[in-house]
Structure formats: structure tokens, C-alpha cells
Amino acid sequence: MSSSARIGSKQKSNLKPDFEGNLADFDAAFLLFVVESDPNFDITLLQNNPSPSLLTSPVNPAAEQMYPVTKDELTRKIKIKGPNTVNTNIFGDQVVLEDDVRVKGNVYGIKLVEIGANCVIEGDVVSDGAISLQKDCRIEGALIGADVEAEAGLSVDGPIYSRGALLCKGNLSAESLTATGNIVLVGDKSAEVVIQGSLIMARHGEIQVGATLKLAGRTVNVEQQKFYITQSGDQMRLSRVPFEQTAEQGVLLTTLTDSELERLIADLAVLEQ
Amino acid sequence: MISLPPDNLQDDNKTVNFAPGMFRARLTGNVSLDDATEDAAILAYEYERRWQQWWSKRRWVMTVLLIIPPVALVLGILLLVLGSGLGGPLLWLALLSLMLLGLFLAYCQFTLPRLGAFGRVYRRVVAVPLSHSGAVWCDAAVPAPDFPSIRDNFFALYRDSAVTGARTQPNEELEDEINRKKWLIGDLSGMLAPLLDSTPDDDAPTPFILANRAACLDRIRMEGLNEAQLNTLLEQSLPPTIPSGQPTTFTKLAREVEAYSSPELLAKNPPAGPKFNLSGNPSSTEQGLENAQILEGEAVPPRLDFVAEGVVTALEPSNEKSQPPELEPETRNSKLETPIHHQIAVKVDENLGLVRGEIQRWEERAAKERAFFAGQVARLHESQQVVRTNYDEVETALEEEIRPTVQRLESDAEFYQSQLSRFYDGQREVIEGARDAALGKLGRELHELEGYQEERLDEQSLLQAEFRGLNEQRTRLETSTDGRFESLKNQLAQLTGRSYTIPPPPVFRSNLGLDDAVVAPTTTEEVLQGLAELRAEARLSTNAVHAALNRYARLRFEPLDDLAQLEQELADGTKWQATRWLGNIINFRQSGQLLALAGEVSDSVGVYLDATGDFERLNARWCALETAIRDLGLASYANRLGEAQQYLVNLSDAIGSLHSSLAMAPHSPEMARPATFQSLYDLAAGLQRELEELGGLAANISRSEERLDQLGGELAELADYIARNKNETDDVTQEAAERLTEVARRQQMLEDKLTELKVTRLNIVRGHIDTFRDQRTAVMTRFDAAAEDISSVGDSADKILKKHLSRSERLLEEARKLRQGLENTIAAIVEEFEGSVAVERTVLTPSELFVPVWYFQFYERPVWSQRMFGFATCYYSLNRFGSKTPDPANLPSLLFFFLANSQPSTRYKLTEEADLATLVAANQLDYPSGRLNLATDSIERLAKDGWLSPWLSWLLNRARR
């Protein structure tokens, strides 16, 4: 008996893809196994499935839908040309917005987000990969990515968090600024980075500031207010110079203290002992 | 306290230049001595006490040793004169006692208490006059506390806290927050740093002596000192290291304390005056009070001004701007009413309150920072939520895409599943049908076989019961026949064997005694008649015996022999062998002859017994006759008597023959009864019948055994059939089960494969969705990590602020503690001071009192295992009594005094002052050892003036060596 034959099998009339011809392979593999394992089996019993086909036609998608609904669309890059206004969330493997695009929702690119100049995002910009922003963009939510690179004039109403490094080349304003890797704020003296929080921190990296930096409304004196930090358990140590014996150290810039005050307090602790 | 001018001070006031404020304590009493004599008196007094104590323990030994020699000597001499032998030993005893006395005196010589050290030293006590009239006693040996330093610390605290907290107030909001922190922490630490190391010790000793302890000073007399005396006393005073400026220090200290307490209150309530005045000089008290006022006005500056000026001076160089408002001129007057230390405390408290307010603001700032970073974390979580929703939407769409394919796959799998079940269910039914048919046939066969088996088993049980009954019967018959056989043998044996005894034959005797029945004849006629009757009776008896012998000789014993032969046969064989003889017994024809024989024998026995009795009687009669003949002298009858004897002897012989005949023939008296033979016949007949019955029973038993064997064989055969049937049933069941298992295994295998293929296909179809879900999980994990990062930033900020807060809190706490500690110290000193101020204050200037202390050191047993003890004490009075000089000048009176007198050898009495000794700590003095500070002739002078007995003087001089 031929195991691969599918006598009288139903004809597939659906429009959906039969994922890699799976159904035919499944039938053939099972018949072959039956013939091999039990020669006495009456194979004709398996040849006519009297149940009706349940295949249904696909549901028509909504008019504007910026997220993948099929397997093919999963890896497709979403690219929106400007000027344009998108009234919905954007969710894609890679999202590329060209100049002058306004998005009235959140932007999420799994591997990449690229935003052109003068874009306005009325929500969060989030990516599990890199995010790059051109000049004069405005984000009304949070900016969260693995590596963030921004041109001048970026304004973020929420926090900025980078799982890797963060590079800003000019003016920047945000609620808070945190990165796991290095934070690099470049620009000339006229460039101004304004952060509402009183402390920015590179957890395992370094902070380099070229522009004028204001934290909680006060200009930061990097010489006085930049500290290396290391934590063990509940203990925290601050130092003006890098720690030698511990690899696990970060850098913070803060307006909550400065090196003179820390020295005074350290002296006092020694005195008390 | 009394300050009496000494007697000599009053007398020599004009000529001697007294050092001001320097006094020494003198002994009171009714006499006044110079120091050297006083020392000697004290030494003699103490030594006598010591010596009396020593001597009281040894006095009786000396007394006994002194009494024995004279008594023994006198008695010994008397007895010698009288010529008694006891005189010699008594003299020896006297000599021995004298030797012992000598030894004891030597012992006393060596062990008498001796002087190790003696002398007087002075302890200094200082009276400090107070600014507000009165004085307080101080111990010059205890160093004064550094009260000015404490006060300076307090002022320093005030000065340093003047700016603390003021620079960080809200009106200086323009200043940077970090700068404010720096100022505050710097100010606090600057304020505390110099004071942290010099925190006063709370339990430092104070030199002030409490009033109740100093009361004993009232009892001593004070004597003014000139320069030379003072120098001498200074050399003798202890401890020698007291700085000479100590009184001045005490004075200053008292003033400070007075100024620091509430002098205004004291001024408003001056002391009510002396309650009592031991000096009896009221003018001195009034004068003292006036002088005190003068002193107060001169020596003590206005205290508030003094303090305030000090503070202002201290503050001026630091910062004029930070001058505290409390010290402004217009407010100073309002504070004049309150004590200065209270003002300072209030000011310091206010400044520390400002610091507290600033720290409060830092805390608010820290709370704001915490809230800000918590908001950032919340913002991140919101973004995470949005991303999660997006992922959900995409996942739903992808699931929708693959839904038809999955449905088709599941439908196919379900169809295959149902078909598999159908096919294998059919197979299972066929196998089960065949198995059930075979099992039915086998079951029927088994039923039949079991029926047969049951029948055979019933029969077998019946036969077994019967067999048991037969066996029982046979056993019973065996027992019965054995019993009968035995009894038959016994009866036969009894019948044929002799079973009775006959008395032995009588013998003639000539000496038988006469019994009552026999009457001896008394006359010749009677003898003659007796002889005749004896002969006749003997002849008759002899005839009867002979007749019996003749009949016995004619008897025939053959039947008895036959019977004996039968008995012999039976006794030799078994019961089965006896069957052939039983007929002979039953048909024994000679029973009549046996009966006749038995009758004859019985008759002969009867004759024998009668003849025996007759013989005995005749023999007795013969003896009676023989006696009568001899008595009557009838010699002529002797022949006749011999004849009669011959008859009797003949009779005896005949009886003997009959006895021997009877004894030879075996027979039983039972043979004489017909019933005996009848029972013998019955026994034999019964035995024969039962033996026959037993023979028939044996045949029955053997038949039953044969049948039982046969049944056993049949049953074994049937059991074999049944076992084979059951084995076959098991085989059929096993085979069917195996086939069913095989079918189930195949079905299971196919179903498993079907499931596996289905799962594999589903995984392939859903692969991209699973990957997408994994990606989402990873992204969410990274979001959580990001939230943790941001919250750790918040934590860092929080820790920085907390560190600042905790440090400043601790500083503030220390500042408060310091202020509290200073206040407590000052309060304690003031309180102690006030407690030690006496109500009567009559000392006008600072004065020092030298209190004499005498120390003693005695040795006992100075030669071996030396014991030494020492002490020091104070006295306050010396009183002389009596005027007669004790006079044990010559040896007898000395001896009498030595032995009998326990009166003191001194004519004066010293009174010790224990309170004073305690106050000046006399017993803790480190007095010199081995030095006797005593003028050389002072003791002799005392003795000469009649203060003490020459005996004591001699002892003392000896003890000094």
C-alpha cells in the first residue's frame, strides 16, 4: 500500500498558507508508520475523513494597523515617509521614520528605531535595540533603548534610559537620564543639557560632559560634583577618583553633594571614631 | 564649728606673731602639756593597755611558778628534819620549779611587747570662708575639681553655638543648599571638636566635706600657730605633697560655686543666724557676718557682668555680626534676674533648635527626591505596560493566522484516532469471543468431573466410617476373647490343681495336760471303765479310718487326668489353637464321675478330720487314765494302759496313712459343685462363639480395605483430569490476554506516534509565534532590569542624603548631650557644695587646721615568728586624776604589784576621737615604720611628776630598746 497517497483527500480551497505543506506531510508520515508497524491494519479506514473542512476565510484587518498580523510581516521594516501623521501606535521589527513625521502614539521597534529630523512622538519611543534621533525631535513620553544616539535639540518629557551607551550631540532636555554604559554629552559651551532630576548616573560606565549641564535647575560643576560610586550590600561609597580594587563601579553627577562636603563628612566620621 | 583662740594665743597675743588662719588641734582636758610630754603620755597610755592585755594571759603561770618553790622547799626541809623519804623529791620539785620559773622569765623577756614605731603626724583640713558668710571644710588631700575649666567649657559651648544654625536660616535662601550643609556640619563639628576630648568625668571626687561629717571638729580645741610652729608642723604633716596654694584654690573654687549657684536667691534669704554658738561669743558671729558682707563686696565682682563680659570678650574676635540677640544691651537687663547658666542654656537650646529646623528641611528635600525617582520608575513601568499590550495585539493576530491550519490538523488527528480505535476494538472482540467459547467448553467438562469426584468422595467417606466401626468391633472382640480365654485357663487350673490344705496327722503323746473337759477317774472302777471305753472308741475310730482308706483305694482318677490334660493343652497354646479343645470341654462326659470322685474325697477328708479330733480326745483321756492309775497305784493296770496306748498308736498310723493318701491325690473342692462345670461350659461356649464372630469380622474388614483402595485410585484419576482441565483453561486465558496486550500495544504505539506527529507539526506551524513570545519575555525582563537601574539611582541619591542627615543628626545629638552633661556636672557640684555648707559660718578668713594623729607599731614575740600590728588614732582630751604617785620602788612591792595588781599604772585618762580619726582617715595614713619620735627624757619626766608609775616607766624604757 502506498503510504504517501492520499486517496480522495479533500481539496484545500483556503487562501491561508498551508504552513510548509504541513498537513500533507503529516498524513503521509502517519500512514507510512501505520503500514510499517502493523501490516494487518486496514489502511482504507484512514483514507476518508468525513468531517467537513473547518477552514475559514481570514478576518479583514482594520483600515490602519501599524503592527504585524502575519508571519511574513514580522520581520518587515516599517518605514514611514514624511511629512506624515500617524494616528496609531507603531510596532515593528525595525521602525524608520523620515523627517517631519508626527506619531500620535507610541513607537516600538524591536531591533531598531530611526527617527528623522523634526519628528514629534506623542508617546514613548522604545526599542530593544539601538535608537537614533535626528535634530530637533520631541518625545512626549519616555525614551528607552539599548543604545541611544541623539542629535541636538532633542526634548524628552519623560525619562531617558539606555541599556548601553548614550550619546547626545547638543542641546537636550529630559526628566532624568540613566545609562548602563557611558554617557557622553558633547557640544560647545552654548549647548545646554537640562535634566530635571538632581542626579544622573552611568551604572557601569563613564560620564563625559562637554556641554553645560543643569541638574534640578542648578549648573553642575563637574570637577566638584562627579563621583565614582560602588555599592556592596547596603553600603555605598563615593569617591572623586576611580576605585582601584573594584571593577563594579559607576559614575554619577549630582547636585546633592560635592567633594568638599563629602570630605568634611568623611573627616567627621574619622574624628568620631 | 568653733574657732577658739588658744589659751596661749590669748595670753601671748601681744608678743607672738601668729600666722593668720593657721591652727592646730589641741587636746582638751584639765591639764595642758607640751608636745613631748603629751606624746610620752599617749605612748605610755597605749603601751600599758597593750601590756595589760598581754600580761593578763600569762599572769597565772607566773603565779603558780612563784608559789610552788617556797612551798615545796619548806615542806621538803620539814620532812627531811622529820626523817621522811619525801623530803628529797620535794626539794627537787622546788629546784625544778625554780628552773621553770627562770625559763618562763626568759620567755617573758623575749616576748614582751616592744615598740616598733611611734610618733605624731598632722593631717591638714582646710576651712574655706564663703562670700556669703560662713565657711565650708575641705579635705586638702583631695585635689579640687577643675571647676573653672568646666565653666569655661560651658561658656565655650555658648560662644561656639552663637553662630550655629543662624547662617542656614531661610532668609539666606539665596545661598546654595550644599553650602548651607557645609556651614551647618562645619559649625556643629567645630563646636564639638575641642570639647569632645575633655568631657568632664561625672564621678570626680570633690574636696568638700559634708557638714555632718565635719561636726566632730567642734569638739577639738584650736590653737593659733606662729611661723616656727607652722614650719615644724608642715614637716610633720601628711601627705607631704599638698601644694601650698591649695587653700587659695579652695577659696576661689568656693567663690565660683557661689557665683554659679543662684546668689540672688541667697541674697534675698540671708541665713537666719547661728542656731547655737559653742564659742559663747556672739560678737564674733556678728562680726563674721559683717566681714562676710564686706568680703562679698570686695572680692566678688557682679557675677552677671563678669560672665557676660567674658562671653562678649570671647565672641568679639569671632564675628560681630553673629552676636546673639540675647546679649544685646537692651535685653541684657531683662535677663539679669535669671541665673547666667540658665540664660546660656536657653541660648544654646535656641541655636540647636535652628539646627533642628534646617535638618528638617533636608529631610523634606530627601522625601521629594525619593518621590521623584519613584515617579521615574512608575513612568518606566507604564511604558512597559504599553509595550506588553502591543505584544499581545501582535500575538493575537498571529494566532488568528494559523488557526485554520491548526484546526485541520486536529480534525485529521481526531479522525485517525477514532479509526484506530474502531479497528482495534474489532480485533479485540474477535479474540475475546474465541476465548470465551473455549473457556465455556472447558467449564462444562470441569463441572462433570467435579460431579464424579463428589460421588466418589461421598462413598469413600461412608466406607471409611464403616471401616472404623469394624475396627472398633474387632478390637472389642479381641479384648473379650482374650479375657474369656484367660479366665477359662484360670478356672481349669483351679479345678485341676490342689487348692486346699489338710491338717497334719496327729502323733501320740503321753504328757498332754488335762483339760477341763476330761475328768480324771478317781476310782478303780472308773479307771477300768475308762480303759474299756478308750479301747472301744479307739477300735471304732480305727475301723472307720480303715474303711475310708479302703474306699479311697478303690477310687478312679482318670476323668481328673483328662481334665488336667485339657488344661495343660489350653495353657500351652493361643486362643486360636484352643478352639479345637473347646469342643472337648463342652462335651466333657465324665463330669458325673468327677462329681462322685469329689464326693468320695470329701467323705475321706471328713473321716480324716473326725479321726484326728477323736485321736486328740482319746490321747487326752489316756493321759488322764495314766495319771489316775499312777495316783491310785494300780500297777496291775499298766498292761491294760499299754494296750490302750497300742490302740491309740495304731489309730495314729491309720490316720497317717489316710493323710498321705489324701495328700497325694490332686483335686479341688470346687469339683464337688455342678455350677463350676456349668460356668466352664459357658465360658468355653462363649469363647468359641466370639472367636467365630471375630473370624467373620476379619473378612469384612479386608473387603472394606480393598474397596477403599479402589476408590482412592479413582479419585486420583479424577483429580488429574480436573488439573489438566484447569491448566487448559489457564492456557486459553493467557493466550487471549497476550493477544489482547499485543493489540493494545499496537494501538498505543500508533496513537503515540499520531500524537507525536501532531505535536511536531503544531510546533512547526507555531514556531514563529513561540519565538516571538520568547522575545517578548526577554524584553520584559530587560524592562525590569531598567526599572531596577533607575530605582538604584534613586537609592544612591537617597543614601547620599541620608548620610548627610544621619551625620548632622548625630552631631546635633552630641551637642545636646554635651550641654546636658555640662549642666549636670555643674549642678552636681553646686548641690554637693550647698549640702556641705554649715548653717553657722563664723570663720572669717581661709584657715587651715592641723589635726594630730598618733601612730603606733608594736612587736610581739620579737625573736621568733614575729607578729607586728600597728594603728593610728586621734585623741581629744587628756584628764589627770589623783595626786599620789604609784610607788612600787622596792623589789617586794614590785613583785606584789606584778602579781596581784591590775590597776592602771597611769594617773590620767585619754579619750579617743573615732569620728575625727575617720574624718582625717587616720588609719589609711602611710606612717613611717621603725622610727620612735619621742623625746629621750620625756618618760622619765612623766614618772617623776607622778603621771605614771616607775614600773611602767621601766617597762617603757625596756620596750624602746
What's the gist of this structure?
The complex is a heterodimer of chains A (273) and B (961). With 273 residues, chain A is mostly beta strands.
Write the layout of secondary structure elements.
The complex is a heterodimer of chains A (273) and B (961).
Chain A: H1 22-37, E1 77-80, E2 84-86, E3 90-97, E4 101-103, E5 107-115, E6 120-121, E7 125-127, E8 130-133, E9 138-139, E10 143-145, E11 147-151, E12 154-156, E13 160-162, E14 166-169, E15 172-174, E16 177-179, E17 183-186, E18 192-195, E19 199-202, E20 207-209, E21 212-215, E22 218-219, H2 222-225, E23 226-232, E24 235-239, E25 250-254, H3 259-272
Parallel strand pairs in A: 1-3, 2-4, 3-5, 4-6, 5-7, 5-8, 6-9, 7-10, 8-11, 9-12, 10-13, 11-14, 12-15, 13-16, 14-17, 15-18, 16-19, 17-20, 18-21
Antiparallel strand pairs in A: 19-25, 21-22, 23-24, 23-25
Chain B: H1 7-11, E1 18-26, H2 35-56, H3 59-82, H4 87-111, E2 114-129, E3 135-139, H5 147-160, H6 177-196, E4 221-226, H7 227-236, E5 237-238, H8 246-260, H9 263-268, H10 282-299, H11 303-315, H12 329-335, H13 340-496, H14 524-554, H15 558-572, H16 579-586, H17 591-632, H18 638-664, H19 674-836, E6 847-860, E7 867-873, E8 875-880, H20 891-900, E9 908-912, H21 914-919, H22 938-944, H23 950-960
Parallel strand pairs in B: 1-6, 2-5
Antiparallel strand pairs in B: 1-4, 2-3, 2-6, 6-7, 8-9
Helix pairs in contact in B: 2-22, 3-4, 5-6, 5-11, 5-13, 5-19, 6-19, 8-19, 13-15, 13-19, 14-17, 14-18, 16-19, 17-18, 22-23
